[in-house]
Amino acid sequence: MKSLWNDREAKKFAQDPLTLRVYTSRLLGRDASLVMHGGGNTSVKTQVRDFFGVEQQVLYIKGSGWDLATIKPEGFAAVKTDTLLRMAAIKELTDADMVRQQRAAMLDPNAPNPSVEAILHAIIPYAYVDHSHADAVVTITNTPDGKKRIKEVFGDRVLIVPYVMPGFILARKVYEMTLGVDWAKYDGIVLLNHGLFTFADTAKESYENHIKLVTKAEQYINEQKKFSFPNKKNMSFPNVFIGNPNTSNALLTLSRLRQAVSRLQVGAVVALLKDDKRSIAFSQLPNIKTLATRGTLTPDHVIRTKPKPVVIHKNIESDVNEYAKAYKGYFDRYTDGELKCLDLAPRWAVYPGKGVIAFGRSLGEAQIISDIIDHTMQAIVRAEGMGGWKVLREKDLFDVEYWELEQAKLTKNPKPLGLQGKIALVTGSASGIGKACVERLSAQGAYVVGLDIKDGYDVTKEADLKKAVESTVRRFGGLDIIVSNAGIFPPSMGLGSMDPGAWEKSLQINLTSHQRLMKIAIPYLSHGIDPTIIIIASKNVPAPGPGAGAYSVAKAGLTQLGRVAALELGAKGIRVNMVHPNQVFDTAIWTKDVLEKRARHYGLTIEQYKTNNILHTQITSKDVADLVCAMAGPAFAKTTGAQIPIDGGNERVI
Ligand SMILES: [Zn+2]
What we know:
Blueprint: H1 7-11, H2 17-29, E1 41-49, E2 55-62, E3 76-80, H3 81-88, H4 95-104, H5 118-123, E4 128-132, H6 135-141, H7 146-154, E5 158-161, H8 168-177, E6 188-191, E7 195-200, H9 203-223, H10 247-265, E8 270-274, H11 277-283, H12 288-291, H13 302-305, E9 310-311, H14 316-334, E10 348-351, E11 355-360, H15 363-384, H16 394-401, H17 404-411, E12 423-427, H18 432-443, E13 447-451, H19 462-476, E14 481-484, H20 500-525, E15 532-536, H21 549-569, E16 575-581, H22 592-601, H23 606-610, H24 621-632, E17 643-646
Parallel strand pairs: 5-6, 9-10, 12-13, 12-14, 14-15, 15-16, 16-17
Antiparallel strand pairs: 1-2, 1-4, 2-3, 4-7, 6-7, 8-11, 10-11
The protein binds zinc ion.
């Protein structure tokens, strides 16, 4: 591992001790093998003048909820050092009291909550303290004789602290172990199964000590007998999900898995399939079922990933249900009777031979879990080369998973939106109603794939539709909502002078393409979450107009298609509903010129023409999209086969 310290860069942060602290914190944060997604913490001890001009000794400590990679000066909380030291001298302290007293000792009550390790930072008698969960150090300690190996790596130059619960218990442990000790004999502290501390009087030295110690650990790992896959000869990397004749099967399996997990989460999840070489190789390890389920790389990962993944080995639905049962059993074993059990869904899955899958209520959450899995898989494989992967006891993981101070981090997650985690496909998405649907569905938390001729997708080509559906499932793990919107409005033509080409084209795009998309999507929708098809038909269905035969007939056929689909798909739980918008004027077709002509034709002003309905209101693309969003959501959960007008009220329709 290389030091990222750069004199020129550092100069920009040299105003005061805190800005330098920001600089080296970010250096730690830049390397995901040191800290990830809010892990680790750093501090600096210094003097500041308070509001009354009195000099105060304070510890600037990383605030909870900040990430080292992007931290700013305001991400640190200034806490009076003597209060922290007095707390360290107390034998027992509840978490609630610790948090309250730390907040009471803050110079600025609006600063973020100090990190749970603030007291430990205060005990260490150096200006700068750096704490990471370095992969290399933790991996070595996550082996049967980890402590012995750490001694081989660092000799007597580090204090080795056995695993205890982070927070006050850990601070108290280090306090007791270091009473009267000569700190100069240590380069750092190794917390078994947890991480590494280094310290110094300058920011540079503390950071570079950190890098030095981690480099030593990495070198040690590299010198070990490499772990090799026992069945290396037979190992293959079947990229089952892409470019394979069985792709559809594999994607259906992925949809089923997502559906089973979503049901336990009580809400749709995104399922990120990882089928890179490393993930597939990992999933192919012969003892994968026991290996993957021993525990997390560091205890704080447990709040993201739970203690173990689900390993698919029999049948997806029963495997996921067994997982849920086992998780409930784990909760019941350790709860004090007061705690509230989290949902029973796994956060990731191992699909032997095919890869691993990360789940999240949002793409961001799934991505965080995916990153953690990457580091965990590498650590497991490395530890197997050092006598075996051996992590904390289940009870220790439970204590961190249900620790109020860790759970508090998760409550900062934004509240789920109406269509959170849903996966949607919208055709004709580049303009008008389609574009508005993409925007509104996304704003409600759905992940939306838009399909348009402008982006090279032709809905009249089955191959294009298949590719779009499959890549949507591949990207997000399933499919829940189809907004079947693509359409054209052929030029006005009487039946007697109907151009056969225009007639055919209207039927192809306005009708047949919708049936083809439906056919391809139904197998995936069958494994969707409250799956639904919303067809954008037209006011012309209940109230046709002369000259629009090619359009009206196709849209009437489309409506009939939707009605039959509602009958056929109800048993699979798929709802099919139709929307009949009247003219929506905020689209490219309705230029000022066209509007003027049409208005004149009826002897109306443009404004009168636009609002020529019972409510005298104008219908916009956004109005239609809002209706589509509502129809995709719980308000319409029990409606299928319905035709909903959105036309401001029309005498011929009513
Ligand atoms: Zn830590």
